[in-house]
Design a protein that fits this description.
Layout: E1 14-21, H1 25-36, E2 41-44, H2 53-56, H3 77-82, H4 92-106, E3 112-113, E4 118-124, E5 129-134, E6 139-147, E7 169-172, E8 187-191, H5 195-204, E9 210-215, E10 221-223, H6 231-239, H7 241-249, H8 269-282, H9 298-315, H10 319-325, E11 338-340, H11 343-346, E12 352-356, E13 362-365, E14 369-372, E15 375-378, E16 381-384, H12 393-396, E17 399-401, H13 408-411, E18 430-432, H14 445-465, E19 471-473, H15 475-489, H16 520-532, E20 538-540, H17 551-560
Parallel strand pairs: 1-2, 1-6, 2-3, 4-17, 6-18, 7-16, 8-9, 8-16, 9-12, 10-11
Antiparallel strand pairs: 4-5, 5-6, 13-14, 14-15, 19-20
Helix pairs in contact: 1-14, 9-10, 14-16, 15-17
Length: 563
C-alpha cells in the first residue's frame, strides 16, 4: 500500500494519495497516521534523518524547554510504555534517541526520502492533484499535500555587512556540525541571546579560551531546575499517561504546565512576593502560570519583570554587566520564554565578556572578527545564534503554486493568512501542521501537530465518503478566521516586543502577530466546530456550499475565550 524510499532521479511521475513534506514531529505523526489509513504515501525530508529541528540543532546545550513527558507523542500507547525518559528536560541527544526509537518501532523511515528538498509544489486544477518536484529529479503526483515544515526550520544570518570577509570559522546554531567542536583555547564569539544563544553561552563559556557575547536585545530567562527522573516517578507517569494527555489536550498550552486563574492584583503584595519566589524556586515555566493576566495587564507584567531583573542583579557580580543583561522596553514573556541552568552565572567567569550592542553597535564583520563602535574584537570562531525566518519562512523558501498560478509568496505578501492555521483559500487539498495562524509557537507543538493531523485525516475521510475531489476554505471563512486572530491579538502583550512572533527579526518581512492567542483548547474547539457543522466554511469540487462562521458567531467566539 505504501510508497517506500524510491530511487532518486525518477523522471516518471509517481502517483500517490499523500505527499508529506518534513521529517520533524509533525511529519512523523502524519506519516504514521496516513500509513495506518491505508493511503499510498511518500514523505520527504531535507535532512539526513528524522528529527526536524532536533536533527539540525546539535549545538552545545541544546535542550527542550518543556517537560520530556509532555514533549512526546501520545498517539501510540505502546511507545509511551516502552520508552523511558531520563531527565525532566531532555537534552538534544536523548531527543534524537527518542525519535530514532519511534521511527524504528513504527517503521517510519521506509516511507521517507532523506537528503531531499522539495523545489516546487503545484496544483493541477484539471486533474485535482498536487505535482511535487524534488532536487533529486523525482516527481510525485498526489491528491493531498501535507506541509509539516514546522514554524522554525529556516535559519537566518544577521543583517550585518561583511560576514563573508571573516577568515575564522563560522558555525550556525541551526546547522551545527555533526562532529564534535572544540573550543579550548579559542576566542569564541556568539551573536544572539535568545533561547539558543543562552543555551550555547552557558555551555561554551566554561570551555572557551575567551567568550565574547554580542547582545542586542537581552532575554528574560528562568532557572530550569532540571533533574533526573527516578524509576518510581517514571512508573507513576506510565500508569497515568491517559489522564496526563487528556489534561494537556484540554489546557490552553497543550501541556501540563500549571496555570492559575489568579489575577496578579487580586492578592496582596506580600502574597505576590511569596508566589513569585516559589515559582522561581520551582523553575521551568512556573512563573508564567502563576498569574492569569501577565500577558494582558501591562502593570502586572512589569511587576514580574522587575522581580526577575532583581534576580539577575543578585546572580551577576559586575553591576554594569548585570544592568546590561536586564531586559527593558518590552513585556516579560512577550519574547519566547527561556530556561537556563547557569546562564547569568557564566558572566562571572573572568574570560567571558558581554558586549552590549545597544550602546556599542556592531558596524561590520572583518577578516579578524567583529568591529563595533568602540573597536575590533578578534575571534577564532564565530557562532551565529540569530534565529529563524519563523512561521512562514519554510513555505516561502520554495515554489508553492495554487489555483490560477497564485503562489504562497503572493498570498502572504502582506503577512500570513489561512483558515484554522491548516488550510489556505486558493490552495485546494494543501494542509499545514502547526501553521502560522494557529497556536504554533504558543503551545506544545507536538499536541498541535497531533491535533492538526487528526483534523486533516477526518477531512480526508469526509471527502472520500462524499466522493469529493478537492477541498479549500471559502474566502469569507479565511477572512473571518483572520479577523478572529486579529481581535484576539489586540488583547495580549505579545505584539509589544520585536520578535519572530511578529516577523521583526527579518528585514522587509510584513509585521504583525498572526498567531492564534486564544489557547490550544479553544483552538481545538473551533477546529472541531468547523467539522461538526458539515464543513460549511469550506468549498468542495462538485459542490458549492455558501456560508461561513457568521460575524455574530465570530464575536461570540472571541468573547468566550478567556485570555
Amino acid at each position: 500500500m505504501n510508497q517506500s524510499n524510491s530511487s532518486s532521479e525518477n523522471s516518471s511521475p509517481i502517483r500517490l494519495d499523500v505527499v508529506v513534506v518534513g521529517g520533524g514531529f509533525g511529519g512523523m505523526c502524519a506519516t504514521y497516521k496516513f500509513r495506518e489509513m491505508g493511503l499510498k504515501i511518500q514523505s520527504i525530508e531535507a535532512g539526513g534523518d528524522l528529527g526536524g529541528v532536533w536533527y539540525w540543532n546539535r549545538y552545545p546545550g541544546a535542550r527542550v524547554d518543556l517537560p520530556s513527558i509532555d514533549y512526546s507523542f501520545s498517539f501510540s500507547p505502546e511507545v509511551e510504555q516502552e520508552w523511558t525518559w531520563s531527565e525532566q528536560f531532555a537534552a538534544q541527544p536523548e531527543l534524537l534517541r527518542y525519535i530514532d526509537f519511534v521511527a524504528n518501532r513504527l517503521e517510519l523511515r521506509k516511507h521517507y526520502q532523506f537528503n531531499t528538498r522539495v523545489t516546487s509544489a503545484s496544483w493541477d486544477e484539471e486533474r485535482k492533484l498536487w505535482v511535487v518536484k524534488t532536487d533529486r529529479g523525482a516527481v510525485f503526483e498526489a491528491t493531498y499535500c501535507i506541509m509539516a515544515t514546522g514554524p522554525l526550520s529556516v535559519p537566518r544570518d544577521p543583517d550585518i555587512p561583511g560576514l563573508e570577509r571573516f577568515k575564522g570559522r563560522i558555525i550556525r546554531a541551526g546547522r551545527w556540525p555533526h562532529e564534535p567542536v572544540s573550543f579550548t583555547g579559542l576566542r569564541v564569539g556568539v551573536i544572539g541571546t535568545g533561547s539558543t544563544g543562552i543555551q550555547i553561552v552557558q555551555d561554551v563559556g566554561p570551555q572557551a579560551g575567551e567568550l565574547f557575547v554580542f547582545q542586542r536585545t537581552p532575554s528574560f530567562t528562568m532557572p530550569m531546575r532540571n533533574e533526573n527522573l527516578t524509576p518510581e516517578y517514571v512508573a507513576e507517569v506510565k500508569r497515568n499517561y491517559a489522564g496526563i494527555r487528556n489534561s494537556a489536550r484540554n489546557s490552553a498550552v497543550g501541556g501540563t504546565r500549571p496555570q492559575s486563574t489568579r489575577a496578579f492584583f487580586s492578592v496582596t503584595p506580600n502574597q505576590r512576593q511569596v508566589l513569585l519566589e516559589d515559582a522561581w524556586k520551582q523553575g521551568g515555566l512556573s512563573m508564567l502560570g502563576t498569574f492569569s493576566d501577565l500577558l494582558q495587564n501591562a502593570e502586572a507584567n512589569e511587576h514580574v519583570a522587575e522581580f526577575v531583573r532583581g534576580k539577575i542583579g543578585e546572580m551577576v557580580k559586575d553591576p554594569r554587566t548585570a544592568e546590561a543583561l536586564k531586559p527593558r522596553g518590552y513585556p516579560i514573556f512577550a519574547r519566547r520564554p527561556c530556561l537556563d541552568s547557569s546562564y547569568y552565572e557564566t558572566y562571572n567567569l573572568p574570560h567571558v565578556h558581554l558586549i552590549d550592542c545597544i550602546n556599542d553597535k556592531i558596524i561590520e564583520f572583518t577578516e579578524k572578527g567583529i568591529r563595533t563602535e568602540s573597536g575590533e574584537t578578534e575571534l577564532d570562531l564565530l557562532i551565529l545564534a540569530t534565529g529563524y525566518d519563523g512561521l512562514t519562512g519554510a513555505l516561502k523558501a520554495f515554489d508553492v503554486t495554487g489555483r490560477d498560478g497564485r503562489t504562497i509568496n503572493d498570498k502572504w505578501s502582506d503577512g500570513a493568512r489561512s483558515h484554522l492555521g491548516i488550510m489556505l483559500e486558493g490552495f485546494p487539498n494543501l494542509f499545514m501542521t502547526t501553521g502560522p495562524t494557529g497556536p504554533a509557537a504558543l503551545a506544545n507543538i507536538i499536541r498541535i501537530s497531533e491535533h492538526d493531523v487528526d483534523w486533516i485525516a477526518t477531512a480526508m475521510q469526509y471527502m472520500d465518503a462524499h466522493h469529493l475531489t478537492a477541498m479549500e476554505p471559502t474566502p469569507e471563512a479565511e477572512q473571518e478566521w483572520m479577523d478572529l486572530v486579529y481581535e484576539l491579538s489586540q488583547r495580549t502583550l505579545l505584539s509589544k516586543a520585536k520578535t519572530w512572533y511578529v516577523g521583526a527579526n527579518v528585514a522587509g518581512k510584513p509585521q504583525g502577530l498572526t498567531l492564534f492567542t486564544g489557547g490550544f483548547a479553544k483552538y481545538a474547539e473551533l477546529c472541531a466546530l468547523a467539522t461538526k457543522d458539515g464543513y460549511r466554511s469550506f468549498q468542495f469540487s462538485h459542490r458549492a456550499e455558501a456560508g461561513a462562521l457568521g460575524t455574530e458567531a465570530k464575536m461570540a467566539a472571541v468573547d468566550a475565550i478567556a485570555l
